Amino acid sequence: MERTQHISLLGRLALLVCLATAAHGLSLKRQELEGAGKTGGSLFSPADYFEVSTPLTDRVAINAYGFYLGNMKAEIALAEASVRVSKAISVTSSYLYIAVPTVGLSQLTGETQSSGYHEHQFRQAASFATSWRNFNISDRNMYALRLIGTGNINRYRNRIYISRSVSAGPFRFTPFVFDEVYHDFASGRWLRRNWIVGGADLPANRYMTFQLSDIRQDDSSLRSVNFLGLAIILRSGTLFDRK
Q1: For the segment 96-106, what is each residue's pLDDT rounded down to a tens digit?
Q2: CA-to-CA separations, 238 to 1, 80, 84, 205, in angstroms, rounded
Q3: What is the Cα–Cα distance from 211 to 15, expressed in whole angstroms?
C-alpha cells in the first residue's frame, strides 16, 4: 500500500513537471508575440507561493500565504480570515503586504528607480459560490484600502472563477480559470488592472496540493507581466469539530 502511494505521488509530480514545462514554453512564446506593456515588451517572471490553510470550524478558516516573484525579487505576504455565512456566501477579512526592490520596480515601470516600493492593504471581500453541471462558479467582490507612501487609495476588485474536477485514470486534478478586474478610485483609467489566469490544482494527498498557473497581468501604469505560478498548498484538519 505504501509503495502504491509513493508511485501515485511520483506520478502526480511527473505530471506537474510536464505541465509546468509546457506552460513555461507557452508563456515565453506569448511574451515574444504580444509585447503589450506600457513601455516596451511584456515581462516574464516565475511566481512561487506557499499557502497554509487551517479550518477552525466548519464555517471559519484562517489562511496564510507567501509569494515570491523571482525575476522582480518582489515579496508578498497575505493573512486572511474567512467566514462561511451560508452554503453560497462567505466573507473574508485580510491584510496584504507588498515589497518590491528597486530593481523590480525599474523593470515594472520601464524607468530607472532610485528606491523600492512598499504597500499595506486592509481588505474586505464577499463571495458568492454555486455549481452548474459539475462546474464550480464563484464571484468575489473585494474592497481594499491601499496604504502607500504618497497617501491612501481605495480599490475595488471583482473576480469570476470557474473550476471543474477531472479524473484521468489514477490521477485527479482540478483545472480552473478566472478573470479579475481592479479599479482604483483615483485619477486615471477606470480599469487599473486585469488578471487572466488559467491553472490546475493537483492533490498529492488529503492535506497537500500542488498548483500550477499561467497568469497574465495587464496594468494601465505598469508593464504587462506573464507569470508562471508554482505553489504548494497545505491544509490541516478542522481544529474544533462540532460534536
Answers
A1: 999 999 999 99
A2: 26, 16, 14, 16
A3: 11
- Residues 141-177: tens digit of each pLDDT: 999 999 998 889 999 999 999 999 999 888 899 999 9
Structural domain for 181, as ranges: 2-233
Higher-confidence residue of 136 and 12: namely 136
Residue 240 lies in a domain: no
The C-alpha cell at 151 is 497617501
Question: Count of domains in the chain?
Answer: 1
Domain assignment present for 174: yes
Q: What is the distance between the alpha carbons of residues 74 and 126, in angstroms, rounded to a whole number?
A: 28
In a domain, 222, yes or no: yes
Please, which residues bridge with residue 82 across strands?
61, 92
d(CA 106, CA 220): 16
177 strand-pairing partners = 162, 198
d(CA 136, CA 216): 22
Q: Is residue 22 helix, strand or coil?
A: helix
Kindly state whether residue 16 falls inside one of the protein's structural domains. Answer: yes
Element (H, E) at 2: helix 2-34
Band of pLDDT at residue 41, cut at 50, 70 and 90: confident
Read off the CATH number of the domain in which 161 is found. 2.40.160.40
pLDDT surpasses 80 at 19:
no
Whether the predicted pLDDT of 24 surpasses 50: no
